[in-house]
Amino acid sequence: MPRSQALLATLLPLALVLGAMGTSSPSEVPAVPESPDAGAVVEASADAGTADAGTGLLGLVPPAPVPSREKAPPIAQLRSLPRKDDVLAQAKLSGGRLVLPAGKGGATLTVDPPLQAQITRIMQDYQVPYGAAVVLEPSTGRVLALAEHSQTDPSMRGLTTRAVFPAASIFKIVTGSALLEAGVAPSEESCFHGGKRGLSERLLEDSTRDGACHTLSSAMGKSANVVFAKLTRKYLSADALRRMAARLRFNRPIAFPIPTDVSLASIPEDEFGLANTGAGFGDVYLSPLHGAALAAASATGVWRDPVLFEPSLEASVAPAEEVLSPEVTRALTGMLEETVTHGTARRVFRERGFRVEGAVGKTGTLADKNPFRDYSWFVGFAPKDNPRVAVAAVIVNEPLWRIRATWLGREAMRLALERFPAPAAPPAVPQEAPLVAQPAPSTEPLSGGEAVSTASAVEVPVPEAAAQAEEASEEEALPPAANASAPIP
């Protein structure tokens, strides 16, 4: 059978299913099944590639209509999580752990109560209109924190699993992964001008006005929109970007005990629409839980569904799926490190006394105009060479704001690393005394070094205005009266 006919035969049943789903909004997407069948639909294609084995068409077509970010932002339809689905609210502290009542199964949650309380307290003290932060253990998928707060609606629950937030430049992780897989080197350079607040077709043409140049790596760090748009147009097809997005669980359900929205992504066929989406301006939505899992997959190259309950001795470990090759994973990590060392998050992560060694990540910023909503994101992991925590943070601010997501994400990452330090190194094996006496080490203090941070795990600094402005300049200009002062919690 010709490939086109095989593809049509596969797509037709899927189209019928999608048509039967009606036109419900993303906020009404049903809860995910406990065990989604990742291999239910397989495309009959000889050149699908090993990385797509078992995935096929799953995720290539959004399972529900994708709303327009400009015309119908889905956050306007946000509703609180029903009590019957709110696992965290049902759990009770027992022996320092969160445990479900016996009538609900008596399972122990993986969430760390002190870390959960610390991150929640930050959002409460800084009165974020809507905020959420998720912390995962990359090697296992265990959820260490599912923190949220809404000053606008204090009764709001479930923000961590709702995909009502535009993914913005977080989607550059998907685009960057696809570019690396297409053979684009992190050192490939592209020149540009403009594009901070939006793109036009004119900006994608090479011009004598192109006064700045970035490599793919530095473009990731500085979130250079035009560079990503140009490279998307030059090297990626809509199919290639869709496949990478599907592999990283966009347009696909994520199995989780709390009902979790599908992160919807519309990836158009037309050249400009594709470039616009690759740069982070498309109609793409992301839940904080998915954001943390995306950071974990970027760290390890492996997708693991998030885990909320401590497994019993008899339980089998959920299978992990390699989604990025080791070569792509290493290159992507180096690109994400640019965000912290030289890019949009460098000031926040250089704040004295609150630095995070080995942190990497990606920022994202977009805004709704009417009514005004400023969405900011940070996703990342640390330490770079042996990731122990993966983090996602999102904040939706009004024109006056106190903190943004890069600052919250750094704090979530720092506090998690303090709560879960690296295992102590085994004691050194005693060695025989040398034949020749060695001089004793000097006991004089070193000079010229940085002061050692003595901040406690619960200390929270006042964000630096300059740090906030740096990250905010990524895609949208700051609102005129940004960064209202805030007291130290």
Count of helices?
A: 13
Unreliable stretches covering 5 or more consecutive residues: 1-56, 433-460, 464-473, 475-489
Q: Name the overall outline.
A: globular
Q: Percent helix among the residues?
A: 25-40%
In what range is the share of β-strand residues?
A: 5-15%
Main-sheet strand order equals 4-3-13-12-11
Query: How many angstroms does the end-to-end distance come to?
Result: 67 Å
The computed structural class is: alpha+beta
**Average pLDDT rating:** 82
Q: How many strands in all?
A: 13
Radius of gyration: 23 Å
H-E string: HHEEHEEEHEEHHHHEHEEHHEEEHH
The profile of the biggest β sheet is: 5 strands, antiparallel
Care to describe what's here?
- The chain is of the alpha+beta class.
- The chain contains 13 helices and 13 strands.
- The chain has a five-stranded antiparallel beta sheet with strand order 4-3-13-12-11. A two-stranded antiparallel ribbon has the order 1-2.
- The protein is globular, with a radius of gyration of 23 Å.
Features:
five-stranded antiparallel beta sheet, alpha+beta, 13 helices, 28% helix, two-stranded antiparallel sheet, disordered C terminus, disordered N terminus, 489 residues, single chain
Helices and strands in order:
Layout: H1 3-20, H2 87-90, E1 92-94, E2 97-99, H3 113-125, E3 130-136, E4 143-149, E5 165-166, H4 172-181, E6 189-192, E7 212-215, H5 216-222, H6 225-235, H7 238-247, H8 271-278, E8 285-286, H9 288-300, E9 302-303, E10 321-322, H10 326-341, H11 346-349, E11 360-368, E12 373-382, E13 389-397, H12 405-419, H13 465-472
Antiparallel strand pairs: 1-2, 3-4, 3-13, 5-8, 6-7, 9-10, 11-12, 12-13
